UniProtKB/TrEMBL annotation:
Keyword Secreted: yes
Keyword Signal in record: yes
Keyword terms, alphabetized: Leucine-rich repeat, Repeat, Secreted, Signal
GO cellular component, one term: extracellular region
Main location: secreted
Highest taxon in the source lineage: Eukaryota
Location relative to the cell: Secreted
Entry-linked Pfam families: LRR_1 (PF00560)
Species in which this protein is naturally found: Punica granatum (Pomegranate)
Matching Gene3D superfamilies: Ribonuclease Inhibitor (3.80.10.10)
Chain positions covered by the region annotation Disordered: 280-300
Protein name in UniProt: Leucine-rich repeat-containing N-terminal plant-type domain-containing protein
Signal peptide start and end residues: 1-29
C-alpha cells in the first residue's frame, strides 16, 4: 500500500510538472512584449508595424541625457521626438515612418541593428552626435526607399560599413568622426552618391585607383591615415566635384598629378588643399548640406 501511494504521488507530481512546463511554454509563445498593446489604435497599419521595433530599440538605449525617449510612448509615432512621417511612394493614402533625425540627441546604444534595418519605409536616418556603436547591418539594403545615412560623430568602429554598398538608392553617406579603420573599398567610389564624408576616422592604406570615378559633389577624406599617391583618376572626378578635402593624410604628389590632368577640367588646387567653409570638418550638428524639408522625403 505504502509503495502504491508513493507511486501515485510521483505520477501526480510528474503530471503537474509537465502541465506547468506546457503552461510556461505557452506563455512564452504568446508573450506580448513584441506585439502592440491591444488598447493602442494606430492611424495606419504601417505605424502599428514599426511600433514594436521602436519600443524594442528604446529598451536598448543606455544613455538619454536629454530625455528624448520619454516622448516615445503611445500610438502617435509621428509625434515622437526625432520621428517623421510621410506618405510613401507606393501609396499616397498611407502614412508611414519616413525619416529619423536624432541629430544632437546624445543617445547611447550598443547597436542600431534590428532598428533602422527593420523600418520598412525608412528613407533618411540622421544621427549626428550620438553615442551609437556597433556595425551597420547588411539588412539595411532591404529598405527600398533608403537614401540618406548620417552616423557622423558617434562611436562606430571596425571596417568600412560595406552594408551601404547594397543600398541601391543611397545618395548621401556621412560617417565622419567615428573610429572606422582599414581600407576604403573601391565600391564606394563607383556608387551613385552625391556626398561622401569619411573624414576623421582611422582609414589607412592607399586610395583605390577608381577613386576618380566617384560622381559625388562633396568628398571629404581629411584627417585619416591614407598613404601613397592620389590616384591620377581624380582628374575625371572634376566635372561633378565641388569640394574635396584631403588634408592631414600621408598622401603624396597631389600638385603634380592635378596639373597633369589639366586638359580635362582639373580640380582646382585650392579645393584640394584648403579647408572648406561649409563645416564639413566639424563634428557639430551643422553639416553644411542637408535641408529640413528632406525629413519629409516624398513631399512634392
Ligand atoms: C505631440 O507631443 C506633444 C508633447 O511631446 C504633445 O504636447 C502634443 O499634444 C502631441 N500631439 C498630438 C497630436 O498628440
Ligand atoms: C558619449 O558619452 C560620453 C560618456 O558617457 C560623453 O562624455 C560624451 O559627451 C557622449 N558623446 C556624445 C556625442 O553624446
Ligand atoms: C578617365 O576616364 C576615361 C574615360 O572613362 C578613361 O579612359 C581614363 O582612363 C580615366 N582616367 C584615369 C586617370 O582614370
Amino acid at each position: 500500500m505504502e509503495h502504491n501511494n508513493h507511486f501515485i504521488t510521483c505520477t501526480i507530481l510528474i503530471i503537474l510538472l509537465t502541465l506547468l512546463g506546457i503552461l510556461r511554454q505557452d506563455c512564452e509563445c504568446t508573450s506580448p512584449s513584441l506585439a502592440p498593446s491591444p488598447d493602442l489604435t494606430f492611424a495606419d497599419v504601417r505605424l502599428a508595424v514599426v511600433y514594436p521595433i521602436i519600443q524594442s530599440f528604446k529598451l536598448t538605449i543606455t544613455l538619454d541625457p536629454l530625455g528624448i525617449t520619454s516622448s516615445w510612448v503611445g500610438s502617435d509615432i509621428c509625434n515622437y521626438t526625432g520621428f517623421y512621417c510621410d506618405n510613401p511612394p507606393d501609396s499616397t493614402s498611407a502614412t508611414t515612418l519616413a525619416a529619423i533625425d536624432f541629430n544632437g540627441f546624445h543617445l547611447a546604444a550598443l547597436t542600431l541593428d534590428g532598428f533602422i534595418d527593420q523600418l520598412p519605409d525608412l528613407a533618411i536616418f540622421h544621427a549626428n552626435s550620438n553615442n551609437f556603436s556597433g556595425t551597420i547591418s547588411p539588412k539595411i539594403a532591404q529598405l527600398p526607399y533608403f537614401y540618406e545615412l548620417d552616423i557622423s560623430n558617434n562611436k562606430f568602429s571596425g571596417q568600412f560599413p560595406s552594408a551601404v554598398f547594397g543600398i541601391a538608392g543611397l545618395s548621401f553617406l556621412d560617417i565622419r568622426f567615428n573610429f572606422f579603420t582599414g581600407a576604403v573599398p573601391p565600391q564606394v567610389f563607383s556608387q551613385a552618391l552625391d556626398a561622401l564624408f569619411i573624414n576623421n576616422n582611422n582609414f589607412m592604406q592607399k586610395l583605390p585607383d577608381n577613386f576618380g570615378s566617384t560622381p559625388v559633389q562633396y568628398l571629404t577624406l581629411a584627417n585619416n591615415k591614407f598613404t601613397g599617391p592620389i590616384p591620377t583618376s581624380i582628374g575625371n572626378a572634376s566635372s561633378t566635384l565641388t569640394e574635396v578635402l584631403l588634408l592631414n593624410n600621408y598622401l603624396t604628389g597631389s600638385r603634380a598629378i592635378v596639373r597633369g590632368e589639366e586638359p580635362s577640367k582639373p580640380v582646382p588646387i585650392e579645393q584640394l588643399l584648403h579647408e572648406d567653409r561649409a563645416n564639413m570638418l566639424e563634428a557639430g550638428e551643422e553639416r553644411g548640406v542637408g535641408r529640413e524639408e528632406e525629413l519629409h522625403p516624398w513631399d512634392s
